[in-house]
Amino acid sequence: xxxxxxxxxxxxxxxxxxxxxxxxxxxxxxxxxxxxxxxxxxxxxxxxxxxxxxxxxxxxxxxxxxxxxxxxxxxxxxxxxxxxxxxxxxxxxxxxxxxxxxxxxxxxxxxxxxxxxxxxxxxxxxxxxxxxxxxxxxxxxxxxxxxxxxxxxxxxxxxxxxxxxxxxxxxxxxxxxxxxxxxxxxxxxxxxxxxxxxxxxxxxxxxxxxxxxxxxxxxxxxxxxxxxxxxxxxxxxxxxxxxxxxxxxxxxxxxxxxxxxxxxxxxxxxxxxxxxxxxxxxxxxxxxxxxxxxxxxxxxxxxxxxxxxxxxxxxxxxxx
Length: 320
What we know:
Blueprint: H1 5-10, H2 12-38, H3 59-62, H4 82-94, H5 99-113, H6 117-130, H7 133-146, H8 152-165, H9 171-182, H10 189-210, H11 219-240, H12 252-269, H13 276-284, H14 290-297, H15 305-319
Helix pairs in contact: 4-5, 5-6, 6-7, 7-8, 8-9, 8-10, 9-10, 10-11, 10-12, 11-12, 12-13, 12-14, 13-15, 14-15
């Protein structure tokens, strides 16, 4: 006969057996659980030590597979204004698209709506990240001459790129751009320090080109002294703007700018190895790839890049 709740309750013997079995099962479970609680807790065992993954460039590729909606705006591309193209580029930058992709989009924007100041600045940003200096100069020169309006940031970027190339044949153009810059509104605070650092290297470059190797009557030493005084004045202007405070930001580009100022100061005041700025920098930061760092700090064709590498390397060694 099948046992149902009704038959269990109606037959005393079966009910007694059922009750005893239930009590026994509960007792066994209680013993097992009690034994487990009496054992001390053990930390989880890891099969491998915790290792931070090495940084890779795959982050920039993830944007292509992002579940987020695309950066395209609602209207067709042919109807976009320059402002909409800038918003499109803002969206792509926020999702870490590679600079080569961003450059392609900037070129597409310029082909659709023409060269506009905002788009020229974006293209300049992307070229600076991936293109040779010569290509940057070619674009900046065409933008400054072809916009029909004076965009102060583009003027400064062209002057800085020419100073960084440091060719004597560029000196007239550098001076012309410097004169033009002086008649433009004062740059924003975040750009002003870089502008003043460019002034320092402009004066240094002028001093280098003033010297004539064939003259032996002492004129070179006079010219060098005058040039060094101009560099020192530019450095004092830079310091007066509290640009040295950028050392606390820890950004590589800002640190390279400061290192360049320190190297120029040592070279123009005759006190090589005395820069407290380089010492503070080395005490606070570990500079990787010193040659590349000094290429950011010192213009080409000025015989101070090797000096920069030695000075930065020495200070890092002493700070260890």
